[in-house]
Amino acid sequence: MGEEVDRVEFTRADRTAFRNQVHRNLDAFARMLREARFAPDRPMTGIEIELNLVDEKCDPAFKNSEVLSAIEDDAFQTELGQFNIEINVPPGQIDGIGLDTMESNIRDSLNAAEEKAARTGSSMVVVGILPTLLTEHIHREALSTNPRYALLNDQIFAARGEDVQIGIDGIERLQVTADSIVPEAACTSTQFHLQVTPEAFPRYWNAAQAISGVQLAVGANSPFLFGKELLRETRIALFEQAADTRTHELKTQGVRPRVWFGERWITSIFDLFEENSRYYPALLPVTSDEDPIAVLDRGDTPALSELRLHNGTIYRWNRPVYDVVREKPHLRVENRVLPAGPTVVDTIANGAFYFGLVRALADSERPIWSQMSFSAAEENFHEAARHGIDAEVFWPGVGTARATELVLRRLLPLASRGLDAWGVDAAVRDRLLGIIEQRCLTNRNGASWQADEFHRLYTKGSHGRRDALRGMLHRYRDHMHENTPVHEWPVD
């Protein structure tokens, strides 16, 4: 959500004041863009990884407060559900051996945290959707105790006016009704942040949108939800439905959802923040005392708190971020496409593929978004969510092709050139992109491994469904701790 909030009720006057303040923030932001007030371009990235907590049976452990108290590290924070926590990886350089260093630091942090979490009878699993999470675990009491989550829940349901209806048709079919936003907590993701200049932002955002489908195809890791095998990246459909504030009638009228791929390529980051103010009512209309124009007039940097808070309640798969660090404003593309896991090395390989590919496409003389309709990019995204490593996607100059073939023949060489442009060490580049290559050659990612291992235990074995999911997750967790890339995980 971006900001802490402590209000429990909002008046009509609150909403009017918030809307007015968002518009004033937009005026200030437009002026900052005109006056070139942003930090210079640096190849910096930050990563957020959401984690699940499980007990000794690999069932959800509702202990995030206890676990965070045991860990005692500010890098770890609460998430929506009591069975979730998040690690925020400090920003680091992409160039040189920066990605190797980031991998090592994340592993060290997670291993240290895992030892402390064990004292509470819990362990951490890095996975897109916890396979052992069942409908019996989804109730309002499962929300984290931080008041902001209860407030967000109440505001979403006040806007919706009815219970959440989740319906997903995949390999199996799921129909679930929920009286809280806790199903959203099942969605655990990896978020890559890339700092860019205002001038470069639209190129990087457009490039990120164009490759979102391919990212999902090779990185899918969420095939199960509430005991059902659904889509290869079920997290996408679940998040779209669980965080939807629209009634059926508003959907029919074409009102935009809060979890949104978008509808067009952009020419400025301002386009996205302006869409936020134009299309979306406030969920959390908390205003500050700041006058951003007055702050600019005296030569300081405004926080733009209302713009940021509002942006934090609109869940674009590639989201714009305005932030201020050490009184210097900067802009980031937040890539929210991928699930968590399966391992740290797989996560960093996903990051290398993303960073390299968006750099190459952003630098291209003939932009990919000038050759490809926005609707084609969106269709690729949902096709990849459904079929994962087996998805077929559209690409200019190629037509419709297997995502794996597209990656091997076209996109890996582009990603390699992009990492060279960032100044990434050649050995680091080859190791990480080699993991993506092997996933494509073996047709194995996290989702396909989970499904194959489940069917080995359930369809071909003697395990009941729940025990098969637990058994699969036990093996998943063992491989995860070994940090072996998922394409090397056996199914036997």
Structure description:
By secondary structure, the protein is α+β, with helices and mostly antiparallel strands. The chain has helices at 12-34, 64-71, 98-117, 147-160, 201-219, 234-242, 248-252, 269-279, 292-297, 305-311, 344-363, 374-387, 403-422, 426-442, 446-457, 465-482; strands at 44-54, 76-78, 84-93, 123-125, 164-169, 173-178, 190-196, 224-225, 228-229, 259-260, 315-316, 318-325, 328-335, 392-395, 399-402. The protein has one domain (12-488): Creatine Kinase, Chain A, domain 2, CATH 3.30.590. It contains 16 helices and 15 strands. The strands form 5 sheets. Strands 1, 2, 3, 4, 7, 12 and 13 form a 7-stranded antiparallel sheet that branches. Strands 5-6 form a two-stranded antiparallel sheet. It is globular and about 70 Å long. The mean pLDDT is 94.
**Largest sheet descriptor:** 7 strands, antiparallel
Q: Total domains, how many?
A: 1
Shape: globular
Mean pLDDT: 94
- Which CATH architecture is right? 2-Layer Sandwich
Number of strands: 15
Structural Rg: 22 Å
The end-to-end span amounts to 42 Å
The chain-level structural class is alpha+beta
Q: Stretches where pLDDT falls below 50 for ≥5 residues?
A: none
Question: Which percent band covers the strand fraction?
Answer: 15-25%
Count of individual helical segments: 16
The CATH class is identified as Alpha Beta
Task: Please bin the fraction of helical residues.
Answer: 40-55%
Could you say what the CATH topology is called?
Creatine Kinase, Chain A, domain 2
